[in-house]
Amino acid sequence: MTARGVLRRGVVLALGLVWLVPLYLLVVNAARPPSQDDLSQLWRLPSSFGLLDNLQVAWSRAGLGASIASTFLYSLVAPALAVVVGASAGFAISVLRLRHGFAWFVFVFGGTIFPVQMLIVPLFIGYGITDVYDTRHGLVLIYTAVNVPFAALVMRNFFTNVPHSLYEAATIDGASTWSVFWRIFMPVSSSALVAIFILEFTLTWNDLLFGLTLSATDTVRPVMTALASLQSAYSGTTAPDVLAAALVVSLPTIVVFLVAQRFFRQGLALGQL
Known about the structure:
By secondary structure, this protein is mainly α. The chain has one domain: Orthogonal Bundle (MetI-like fold). The protein has 14 helices and no strands. The longest helix is centred in the N-terminal third of the chain and has 31 residues, at 64-94.
């Protein structure tokens, strides 16, 4: 092995160890019984295993079951809708060569230049007026809206690199625009679509701000909002309880990445993300 190869592996190993340090602290302290919650023992392994007991306390006090179910709904439905809408926008701009297409793209993507915090007050007022505050479909709507610009950006760039002759050949054969989009361009871009979905699933799952602002009940609020409620001064939970809940809440995003990693690697290899 060359010196460059040894150096490369050494750097990767060092970075991997740095990444594992917070994970070690999370697991060790999540498994620590509340009676051993002491900053002086932060790096030490617990003398007894209390992860399941800590999780049970956090689960019951924060209503994690209902929140996790709602968050799965938001994280699956909203990114899926956003991917379809974004792909439709990218198809119209790049393939159909929509008139003033770049201006439409700027209009769609331009909403991302504003900080999310600027949207909170108008959204709160608007959701209250339209009676969609603290509803699941209200959160699906906002999560879809904030995910569309990124999907449109990626798919516009992807469709730009697809030969336009593919669309022309399909239309000459009598295929409608709808058929060309669904039967040709969507299957061709499956890797990019899955990569976008994974990223937007993670962003939706980890959202806290919209959940805090637009939901109130245990059955509607996202899981990160429920997790945040455990850290209040009146929750009655200890640090190991919160860490145990955080450990469990982080598992779905890890599983999604592991299951769809092949598609994610292919999407990254396209050079569009």
